[in-house]
Structure formats: structure tokens, C-alpha cells
């Protein structure tokens, strides 16, 4: 596809969305007195049917495009789109290594769908299916949950608004650890070779930096058992990012207002023969 064709298709999509917005706004303003409302409903049902068929693949490509845009234009990194390394690959520059990103998104309302995507992305990063991260790359699994009814990491929607951040993190870490270690060739998890590509961090610990009560992160550097910082060593680890289109409600602890998870990240490292999942970034709204 050439640039002109892409521009024409982009224009077509934009025009369609603008017309849909105008129809919806008119029906709302009409307050139910619009004589064409029934026709509008039929039209919207047809459009919804088309979008539901197309949205899954499109959402995946949208995630890849967004990661490419963020790394190339916002962070000014050297970026490769798709290819034989990962969905998107970026170099940090100045000899600081890079990242290999596998992007997933789901409209499913079940916890299992998210876990399957995490396991699938991890298996892709092993190199079994033609994508091979470079030595020293940090592996990133980036999952977007697009259904407001999806209770991940919990199984039931009844958990909405009843779990603290600590309970959420504990459940998520257990689920991620179990999924990554449940290896199935070409389908799920890490094989032995990929597991041993991860840096053995037995003698190191991630440094945790708390920015605010609503935003915490792990530093990308390590400190050894004596507390010395090791900023220039390349460490291969797995970062699992979970993003919510509709933020996840946590338990309300009076007198504080309800907080919602918008994004949460976990750092997966190897410690000898064990896979350890650490709390990392979280963004609450």
C-alpha cells in the first residue's frame, strides 16, 4: 500500500466517524422525537455489526501503531515496526540496549482471555514463532483490556470495588507467574532457553521509586547486595503492562474517594531457577 492509498482510507474512516457522531448527537438532542430514529437504529446496528467484526484486528494494529509513534516521535528512539524481532522494537540509544514489544488487546469479558494473551506474547518472545529479541533487549508484553466488564486479574465481576491495590497486585503476580511458567510449545509461556536468557538477578534487587500515592515505579537500574548501583549493565527481564480502557475500581477506603487503576505494570525477573514477579508502575485515577 502506498502513502496516497493510506491517506484515502484514513480520510474515509474519519468521514464515517464524523457522520456517526452527528447522527448520535442529533438523536440525543431530538429527545426521542426524531421521526428517523428507527432508521438510525437500523443503520447503527449495521455499522456496529461491521465494527465488531473488524475491531479486533484493527485494535491490534492500532496498538502497534501507537507504540511505534510513542517510541519514534515522543521518545525519539530508533524504531523498527514488526519484522523478525517483535511487533515493535526500539533502541534506547547510547549503547543502552533496547526493548522488544509484543502488543495485545481484548474485548472479551473474561479473565482467561487476558491470561492467554500474556502467555501467547511470552511464547512469541521465546523465538519459537519467528520473532527473536536481540541479546540485551528488555522484553515487554503490553495488554489493553477494552471491555469494562473484564475483572482481570480476578475471575468474577463481583470483585469490582471490593479489592485493595495490594490484593490486586498479589493476585496479578500469582496469575502472571503461573501463566509464564506453564510452557506449551508454540502456544504459551517460556521455554527453557528463553528462561535462561533472562538475567539471573539473585545478587541484585530492583530499586523502587515512589513518585506519589498514585504513581509508583521501579527504576530500570539495579543495586547489588551491597547497595552499589549498576546502571550500565544490560539486564534482560520481562515487563508486563496492563492497561484499562475503562479503569478498574478498587475498594473504597473512607474517607478517601474510590480509586481506579488505569495502568499497572509488573517486572518479571529470574532468580536462579525461579521466576519472580515484582510490583512495578501503577497509575491510579
Protein described:
Strands 1, 2, 3, 4, 5, 6, 7, 8, 9 and 10 form a 10-stranded mixed sheet that branches. Strand 9 (260-271) and strand 10 form a beta hairpin. Mean pLDDT is 77; it is low at 218-229. With 285 residues, the chain is of the alpha+beta class. It folds into 2 domains: 3-53; 61-284, no CATH class. The chain is globular and about 60 Å long. Helix 3 (111-125) packs across helix 4 (165-181). The chain starts with a helix and ends with a strand. The longest helix is centred in the N-terminal third of the chain and has 38 residues, at 37-74. It contains 5 helices and 10 strands.
What's the layout of helices and strands?
Layout: H1 3-29, H2 37-74, E1 78-81, E2 88-91, E3 98-106, H3 111-125, E4 138-145, H4 165-181, H5 192-197, E5 204-212, E6 215-224, E7 229-230, E8 238-249, E9 260-271, E10 274-284
Parallel strand pairs: 3-4, 4-8
Antiparallel strand pairs: 1-2, 2-3, 5-6, 6-7, 6-10, 8-9, 9-10
Helix pairs in contact: 3-4
